[in-house]
Specification:
By secondary structure, this protein is α+β, with helices and mostly antiparallel strands. The chain has four domains: 124 residues, no CATH class; 160 residues, Transferase(Phosphotransferase), domain 1, CATH 1.10.510; 107 residues, no CATH class; 106 residues, no CATH class. Helix content is 52%, strand content 9%. Strands 1, 2, 3, 4 and 6 form a five-stranded antiparallel sheet that branches. It has a four-stranded mixed sheet with strand order 5-10-9-7. Helix 3 packs antiparallel against helix 4, helix 13 crosses helix 19 and helix 15 crosses helix 16. The N and C termini lie far apart (77 Å).
Length: 578
């Protein structure tokens, strides 16, 4: 491998790290006689102890500290002793000086600290690899937490990634492990993640979006940013009064409802990943607080994950299959969502995953760690020549961290049972979302006639009749003569009214489905909405006014409204099935 002279020192450090911790084969392949001799690496300490790895990463700088933090959540890559040691990097990083903090705040906010804040603590309350947090008060007395980025960190990280990218490309091209693991792609994903974390304006928007998405969860709080005091390198947000979840003693746990908090946390994260498509991707115990009023606070939203609707569907199916111990179904879905290489061994992959899921369930459902299982699935896929999406790995890592948090809150908490309980709610929520967001518009090409009939049955309404009559464009129907044309004004008014009633009916249907689960005759929601009047049946779950509003369109849709008995609340039965 040919080295850049400006990065020679860093190459030596990385090669030494690999040699010391068991990958001397890679270090030897990196070495070139003109640059350095790999035998030199043997001269230094080579015990490879876990605590020594932490010290080595800290000495190499913030990029490698961040790498250690990521590895701390990957038991599929490192032994437990190393994971325990690396956990120290999550909240025990050396801070930088207050003088540097003042300079950064002046450059970013344009005013001195004393002008922007009425109080500002000189010692940080937390220090991490990319920045540190100070307690402060605004001029109106409001307490805030101010996160300040480490000085000159963007340049350091950019240089580090130049080196890592060169090494990754070399390993991919010249080693079997590189071809199997695709180090270049891993480095590229890692670079993108850190670049996003370095943009505090982006994190401020993440706080707003996730906070809005989790408003329904009353036991979870997300600090909101103070945008006028936030820039690319400074983030000012609500100060959360509480303590880290790891700092709560046995007596403190008696004051909180740990089981309820753990259940709420899992439910919120499943919604983030599988419904919202934006989720907090780093919920290690250092980023989870218990507030003074007994709620959970989610901190540090610099690292977030994104999932689109198609990926959400894949992840949900894999999650349910693993949780229920159905290895074959998990294999089929993972293969469907992943990239296959020419050397992909389907039989070997199916055998490994079936054994993995079966052995996990043999331990008992309560002890099944779904996050760990997903990471093991990713590892086996890589070994068999299958490249799984990064979203699956991120979901596994997130669930693994949540499992740790859940068991701290309640040692008896069954994460697998929580996933299975909440999966049903997730499925119904996704179905409702797909129906209400795009259902009517998407259904019009296939169900245009039914939509134009409004809520009427066969042969009713002002649109086209199946037995002949007016069509919406004023032309003749297939078996009638030419009727007089309606004006364009009529058509526009009709369309506008139709859209209005569609929106009204969908909004009412949203609440009805949430409280009752939909049409009792089993018709899809859109079919239920568009294919005829619903016959009320006795029940107490749907308000009378709602039944009236959903079934009955405005009077100006040129149809006689169907009378309703408004005496009691009732669910629906579709007229077409009666």
């Amino acid at each position: 491998m040919k080295f850049s002279a400006t990065h020679l020192r860093r190459y030596r450090q990385i090669a030494g790290l690999l040699w010391k911790y068991g990958r001397s084969d890679i270090a030897q392949q990196m070495a070139v006689p003109d640059e350095f001799d790999p035998d030199e690496l043997k001269a230094g300490p080579s015990d490879g102890a876990p605590e020594q790895l932490v010290d080595d990463l800290e000495a190499m700088g913030p990029t490698y500290v961040k790498m250690g933090q990521v590895l701390a959540g990957r038991p599929d890559l490192l032994p437990r002793a190393y994971l325990t040691a690396l956990a120290r990097l999550q909240d025990k990083v050396k801070p930088f000086s207050y003088e540097e903090v003042e300079q950064i705040l002046l450059a970013e906010l344009g005013v001195r600290v004393s002008k922007a804040f009425s109080q500002f603590a000189t010692d940080p309350i937390a220090a991490a690899s990319l920045g540190q947090v100070h307690l402060a008060a605004l001029r109106d007395g409001r307490l805030v937490a101010v996160k300040v980025q480490r000085p000159d960190i963007r340049r350091q990280i950019a240089e580090d990634f130049e080196v890592l990218a060169e090494i990754a490309t070399f390993l991919d091209d010249h080693t079997e492990i590189g071809r199997r693991c695709r180090f270049s792609a891993i480095v590229a994903d890692f670079r993108t993640t850190i670049q996003q974390e370095l943009n505090y304006e982006r994190e401020a928007q993440n706080l707003i979006a996730v906070g809005k998405n989790l408003q329904e969860f009353k036991l979870i709080v997300v600090p909101q940013p103070v945008l006028d005091y936030s820039t690319r390198s400074v983030l000012t947000m609500d100060y959360i009064k509480g303590q880290k979840i790891t700092a709560i003693g046995s007596l403190g746990k008696q004051d909180i409802n740990g089981a309820r908090l753990a259940e709420e946390l899992f439910k919120a994260y499943l919604k983030q990943v599988l419904v919202d498509g934006l989720f907090h991707a780093d919920p290690h115990p250092g980023n989870v607080f218990i507030t003074d009023d007994g709620r959970i606070a989610l901190l540090d939203l610099g690292m977030v994950g994104h999932t689109g609707p198609v990926m959400q569907e894949h992840l949900l199916k894999v999650l349910i299959a693993v949780s229920n111990g159905k290895g074959d179904e998990a294999v089929e879905e993972v293969v469907r969502m992943s990239e296959k290489t020419d050397s992909f061994d389907l039989h070997g992959f199916r055998l490994q995953i079936s054994q993995l899921v079966a052995s996990s369930h043999d331990k008992g459902l309560k002890d099944l760690n779904v996050g760990r299982t997903l990471l093991d699935v990713s590892r086996h896929a890589r070994e068999c020549g299958l490249y799984v999406p990064s979203e699956l790995v991120l979901l596994g890592k997130t669930l693994l961290q949540l499992d740790e948090v859940g068991r701290i809150l309640d040692p008896e908490f069954d994460t697998n049972a929580s996933i299975r309980r909440n999966a049903i709610h997730i499925i119904s929520t996704r179905t409702l979302r797909d129906t209400t967001q795009g259902g009517v518009a998407n259904a019009k090409p296939d169900h245009g006639r039914d939509l134009e009939r409004g809520a009427g049955g066969e042969g009713e309404g002002t649109g086209r009749k199946d037995g002949g009559g007016w069509d919406r464009e004023g032309g003749k129907s297939s078996d009638q003569g030419n009727p007089p044309r309606r004006s364009h004004h009529w058509r526009g008014a009709h369309d506008e009214n139709l859209n209005a009633v569609d929106a009204l009916r969908v909004s009412r249907l949203r609440h009805a489905l949430l409280s009752r689960g939909g049409c009792r005759d089993g018709h899809p929601p859109l079919q239920h909405l568009c294919r005829g009047p619903c016959q009320p049946q006795t029940s107490g779950s749907l308000g009378t006014d709602m039944a009236q509003d959903v079934d009955e369109p405005p009077r100006n849709l040129h149809r006689e409204p169907r009378p309703h008995a408004r005496s009691r609340a009732r669910p629906w039965k579709c007229a077409k099935s009666s």
